[in-house]
Structure formats: structure tokens, C-alpha cells
Specification:
Helix content is 30%, strand content 31%. It has 261 residues and is of the alpha/beta class. The protein has 2 domains: 190 residues, Vaccinia Virus protein VP39 (Rossmann fold); 63 residues. The strands form 2 sheets. A 7-stranded mixed sheet has the order 3-2-1-4-5-12-11, with helices on both faces. Strands 6, 7, 8, 9 and 10 form a 5-stranded antiparallel sheet that branches. It is globular, with a radius of gyration of 18 Å.
Length: 261
């Protein structure tokens, strides 16, 4: 992995407080994965557990979860979240540090999930195949694999990479410093990787402004189906959103449920 892609994989996740501030109100995917988990009838392996936003709700629904992540900052934030759960719920969650491209636990699961664009940090075919081999290794014979990635949008991929688009200002939850926010998008059509540069402009005197990169591999629909097929999976269903929206040209996401072939 190039240093640029490595930084684009890690930088956004070194600040879990800002991450939770930004995404804690995101609920549709939590409802989706909780429903799939309850119907799976067994324990769940979550690849990319992050700050535990999904895992905590699965545990509250009575599901045992093993959560995997590479970022220690995110995992520490997840542990803090789990400490607020009732003890009998928190005991359903096990956190493990691990790379989804190399993970090999001595355990099989009814369901493996990779929520919130985790697979978009797999930048090469070899990365994708390694991650899918991890999923295959951990699934029971009739197990389910559920994940989501964004739907590539031509208009967004063609945005001027020199132009910043202004977002909402915010106050950082750690030090209460006020920041203006903007972002620009640069797409490499050969690697199919889009890099988002998130710019944080300090509004309070004595504090520095800074940029944070976020790199996302884009998966086109037919490409994604082929990658699943040739790595041993059958695409069972695909929606354009977490509430069962149709998968068509208006779709924002590719919400996928697959099984071993």
C-alpha cells in the first residue's frame, strides 16, 4: 500500500471523538445490520468495528459480536462506549485488534458484516481477494455476508479537484475549539480511488488549521458482483439504501447480502 493510501486509510480514524460527533446520528445502517443479525441465528463477526456504533446495538439486541479493527484509537473509544452498557450486554462483545486482510480466528460465524464502507479501504484486487478470503474462512456453511459501499456517482467523481466545498462549522468535542469545515475530491480513474481532503479551519486564536485525507476505492456495480462471484460468493440481494430502496440509478449505496457459493 502506498503511503498516500495508508494515510488516507488511517488519518480520519485517529480522532474518534470527532468521528462519533459526525456519525453518531447515523441510524439506518444500524437498524439494517441489527435486523440481519437477529435473523442470522448466531454470533456475528464485525470487520471494522470502529467506535462500536453497530456492535453495541447488536449486543443490545441479544447478539454475540466479535469486533475487529486496526486502529487503537477507535477501539479505545469503543471500549468507553461499551462501559456504559449493562454488564450482561457488554459481555456479548469481544474486541480484537486485527487486519481484515489477514485475520484468522479459530471460530466460525453465522454472519460476517463490514459496515459503513469498510471495503472501500481495499484499494487493489489483491486486497479485495484477501478480505473475501477472510470472510470465507470465518463463515459457517450456510452463513451470510453483509456489507455496504457507496455507489459511484459520475457527477461526484468528476468534481474539480482544486475546489473546496464548504460544510458546516462545528465545535470539537475534546477541546471545544471552533472549526470551519470544507472538503475537496480528487478521483484517480485508473486506481478507482477517490481521495477526500477534509480541511479544518480553526476559528479560535492560537489553534492551527489542518487537513485530513480519506481514501475510498470506488466499486462499480458489475465489478462488485464479479469480485464476489469469482471469490466464491453468491449475491443474494442488493439494495440502494438501508431501508430496502431499489438498486437503480438513484441509489446512494450498494447494500449487499451474499452467501457462499
Amino acid at each position: 500500500m502506498s503511503e498516500e493510501w495508508k494515510e488516507g486509510t488511517e488519518a480520519h480514524y485517529r480522532d474518534p471523538l470527532y468521528y462519533d460527533l459526525t456519525y453518531d446520528e447515523r441510524h439506518d445502517d444500524v437498524f439494517f445490520y441489527t435486523d440481519v443479525a437477529k435473523r442470522s441465528g448466531g454470533a456475528v463477526l464485525e470487520l471494522g468495528v470502529g467506535t462500536g456504533r453497530v456492535a453495541s446495538e447488536l449486543a443490545l439486541a441479544g447478539v454475540d459480536v466479535v469486533g475487529i479493527d486496526t486502529m487503537p484509537e477507535m477501539m479505545e473509544r469503543a471500549r468507553a462506549r461499551f462501559r456504559h452498557l449493562p454488564p450482561e450486554v457488554a459481555r456479548r462483545i469481544e474486541l480484537r485488534k486485527g487486519d481484515l486482510k489477514r485475520l484468522r480466528l479459530r471460530r466460525k460465524f453465522s454472519l460476517v458484516i463490514a459496515p459503513f464502507n469498510v471495503f472501500m479501504h481495499l484499494y487493489t484486487r489483491e486486497d479485495v481477494e484477501a478480505a473475501l478470503a477472510t470472510v470465507r474462512h470465518h463463515l459457517k456453511p450456510r452463513g451470510t455476508f453483509a456489507f455496504d459501499v457507496l455507489m459511484p456517482m459520475a457527477s461526484e467523481l468528476a468534481l474539480n479537484p482544486a475546489k473546496f466545498h464548504r460544510g458546516k462549522s462545528f465545535k470539537h468535542p475534546l477541546d471545544k475549539v471552533r472549526y470551519g469545515y470544507s472538503e475537496r475530491f480528487e478521483y484517480d480513474s485508473v486506481s478507482q480511488v477517490q481521495t477526500v481532503t477534509m480541511r479544518f479551519l480553526a476559528k479560535d486564536e492560537g489553534h492551527a488549521s489542518f487537513d485530513v485525507p480519506l481514501a475510498h476505492r470506488q466499486f462499480f456495480p458489475a465489478e462488485l458482483e464479479a469480485l464476489l462471484h469469482y471469490n466464491g460468493f453468491r449475491l443474494e440481494s442488493r439494495w440502494g439504501g438501508f431501508a430496502g430502496e431499489p438498486f437503480d440509478g438513484e441509489a446512494d449505496s450498494q447494500v449487499v447480502v451474499a452467501r457462499l457459493r
